[in-house]
């Protein structure tokens, strides 16, 4: 697999299990790009939904993608602290067009005090039935949700102290 080059811009494309394009983020800056990990950053980035509606992100964000784990993590820098939005998703793939992953609806919102809420379980159940997720996929996704929750509780990876701040400092050097 090709890895994105640090300092380059990339598009991020989110799909659904049935192959339908779900959401596109334009012009995220690559801070780290290897075959297994991509760390990107964006601020005031245009996001386009599958129905054509678009909106602009409100704050700087550091995005963490892994080729092994079935989740990705977005750390959003707000005035009252760092909030995380975590998507249960396929591992990413990167080609010359974009970084791509399948969004499986289950999400975890993490607050600055590291408490969290699991979101969209009903949406996951609906799509699991509509798109006929195999039982093995359902197990993989729930096992990775458990793994993600352990990372949160243990302050591991992007949840470790200073992770988002250090990558944001690197992002500022490109501006």
Automatic annotation (TrEMBL):
Q: What is its EC number?
A: 3.6.1.15, 3.6.1.6
Q: Gene3D superfamilies from the entry?
A: FomD-like
Q: Which InterPro entries match?
A: DUF402, FomD-like_sf, Ntdp-like, SA1684
Short name of one Pfam family: DUF402
Q: Which reaction does it catalyse?
A: a ribonucleoside 5'-triphosphate + H2O = a ribonucleoside 5'-diphosphate + phosphate + H(+); a ribonucleoside 5'-diphosphate + H2O = a ribonucleoside 5'-phosphate + phosphate + H(+)
Identify the residues that bind Mg(2+) 2. Answer: 105, 107, 120, 123
- The molecule here is called Nucleoside triphosphate/diphosphate phosphatase
Species per Swiss-Prot/TrEMBL record: Oceanobacillus picturae
């Amino acid at each position: 697999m090709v890895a994105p080059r640090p300092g380059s811009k990339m598009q991020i494309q989110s799909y659904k299990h049935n192959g339908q394009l779900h959401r596109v983020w334009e012009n995220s800056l690559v801070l780290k790009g290897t075959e297994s990990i991509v760390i990107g950053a964006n601020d005031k980035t245009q996001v386009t939904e599958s129905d054509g509606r678009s909106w602009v992100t409100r704050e700087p964000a550091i995005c963490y993608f892994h080729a092994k784990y079935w989740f990705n993590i977005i750390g959003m820098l707000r005035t009252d602290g760092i909030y995380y939005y975590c998507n249960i998703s396929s591992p990413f793939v990167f080609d010359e067009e974009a970084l791509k992953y399948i969004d499986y609806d289950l999400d975890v919102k993490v607050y600055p005090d590291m408490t969290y809420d699991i979101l969209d379980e009903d949406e996951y159940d609906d799509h699991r039935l509509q798109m006929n997720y195999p039982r093995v996929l359902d197990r993989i996704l729930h096992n990775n949700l458990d793994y993600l929750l352990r990372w949160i509780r243990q302050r591991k990876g992007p949840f470790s102290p200073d992770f988002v701040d250090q990558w944001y400092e690197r992002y500022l050097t490109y501006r």
